[in-house]
Amino acid sequence: MPKKRTAGERSIDPASQQILIRADELGLDTAFSRADAMAACPIGMGRSGLCCKNCFMGPCRLTKEGQVGVCGATASTIAARNMARAIAGGAAAHSDHGRDIAFTLLAAAEGEAQGYQIRDTVKLQAVARHYNIPAQGKTTAALAKEVALKAIAEFGQQTGQLAFVQRAPNKRQQAWKRYGIVPRGIDREVVDVLHRTHMGDDQHPEHILKGALRCALADGWGGSMIATDLSDVLFGTPAPKVGQVNLGVLAGDEVNIVLHGHEPTLSEMIVAAASEPELIAYAQSKGAKGINLAGICCTSNEILLRQGVPSAGNFLNQELALITGAVEVMVVDVQCIMQALPNLAGKFHTKFITTSPKVMIEGSLHIEFDERRALDIAREIVRVAIDNYPNRGPVVIPDDVEDIVPGFSHEYINYMLGGSYRASFRPLNDAIMAGRIRGVVADVGCNNPRVTQDKSHTWLVREFLKRDVLVVQTGCGALASGKMGMVTGEAALEYAGPGLREVCEATGMPPVLHMGSCVDNTRILTVLAQMAQEGGLGDDISDIPAVGLAPEWMSEKALAIGAYCAASGACVIFGLASPVEYSGEVTRLMEEVWEKELGGKLLFASDDETILQRSLEHIDRKRAALNLPVYDPSRFGRSGDARMRALRALPLEARAEALYGGVK
Length: 664
Hints:
Layout: H1 7-10, H2 14-26, H3 31-37, E1 51-52, E2 60-61, H4 75-109, H5 121-130, H6 140-156, H7 170-179, H8 186-196, H9 205-235, E3 243-245, E4 255-261, H10 264-274, H11 277-285, E5 291-296, H12 297-307, H13 318-323, E6 329-332, H14 341-346, E7 351-354, E8 365-366, H15 374-388, E9 402-404, H16 410-418, H17 426-434, E10 439-443, H18 455-466, E11 469-473, H19 475-483, H20 491-495, H21 498-507, E12 512-514, H22 521-534, E13 546-550, H23 556-567, E14 571-574, H24 584-598, E15 601-604, H25 608-625, H26 641-648, H27 652-660
Parallel strand pairs: 4-5, 4-6, 6-7, 7-8, 10-11, 10-13, 11-12, 13-14, 14-15
Antiparallel strand pairs: 1-2, 3-9
Helix pairs in contact: 4-6, 4-8, 4-9, 4-23, 5-6, 5-9, 6-9, 8-9, 9-22, 9-23, 10-12, 10-15, 18-25
């Protein structure tokens, strides 16, 4: 009988623990309790990559050395096919998000998208340049239409290469050409993988994985990059702003609308509708003080970093928000939405609303989104929530809430480091070259209820920070750090090592940079490409002392992200068990062959200590290859940080006296 974990074993977040105890008291299932009850496959081959169900001669489970499937497929072929199909599924999901944004931009440019406008014309012109579209003499609407049509065309493109490939360093582009994985068209590469992994097709593990890498690159340097860039054009390029995170952002005396999923198109309109005086007055007429919006998962990140809308938490907080009893409506669109939500909402007064034409869930209220009526649909949803407010029962809202400073787009990092007149990554490169910053870690990815929520994310981030490793985060990983108070400028004084602390004090930046939603991992690619092009850290992404991590991953999208980062030259380490664990050949291909051919690799490590050790070893190896000084924290920390902390505790006049000898 599987062991039932305590609330503390399920999550390190006090707010989550409080609501998990409430769930147990009410006899309610959650992903945590279902994970406890769900026994693993008794053979164990499915999770480890050696179960094939790609045709109806099987499923074939290879349990013995040398065993093959009914068709003769070897363990390596089966594991490679399973990995490739997972990458294709993740790439399809994230890229389709980009397609939807492109169609919204087109509708806005043609004046057919209610409530939308082009908010960042500078970013629009930058994207147009990447597409070789001249901007001179064109109206904003005309230019936006050309950009949208070009982006849409790349999904169906059959030959050539995707336009954004040219944004990678030259050396990186040449590596892709040599290995034969330059992406031609976004949809073409997804179809290619599904075709070659059909029964009776590609049976060469390395060749199968080549197709998977090309598919992943079509996402990272195609669909996902399109999604990020065009979202910035429509909704504004993020810049830092103070927000709040955790279940404590729910309001006891206001109408609570929780926005969950990944698409910013509807959520941005709900933000607009909820601020309209007429709807606020309507909420007050029902006894509420106002309307409170909160996000979950990556929709949360989208509206947090652009609009400052508070976040109720990451992936594993979605059920917990409902169990507070304080949510009038949960609105969802696509991806990472648990099917358990409508049934759980029915235990309370909450209305559960699906909105995407791609997603319907039994037991939900479906209000389909249409850009042509976007604001009207948003108003309808807000009214449903307001009308439901008087139906509330008992409410338990945790007090836990933390400040968070999200919004570090690559454009803002450029400005932050270089200033208005000379935006540049040179100060970051110099800090790494000098050893103040040992290296960079991108900690991204999901939560997984089979491990303790947020534990790996937060432990690893703390350990990296105190070793002077700058951390950048997206998605659920960023919200995990936010819940623990590590995504503010002040956090550098508590968590950062002496060198990193100096850099944070000089710039005012947090030691953990929140760069957006999971689709915004392309921002990290852009930063790495610009660092390589800036000089001093080699001339390719693979030269930079940097590591990508997904310690609590669970989705196919995570594998697609890991694959396109590895193909881009990064060392990427996943936590938990390897989905190809029992295939030594596929493991060798992803670690050794990919590193030889592309400079990047994909690793799996089941414990946090190993992830930390391998990450630091990789960073230090890259430093040595660049002939940079050996990391030595004793060289730094004398820049006044300890003195400044002491001064901050003094009254204003005493502080001025100590600093300036008094003021007249």
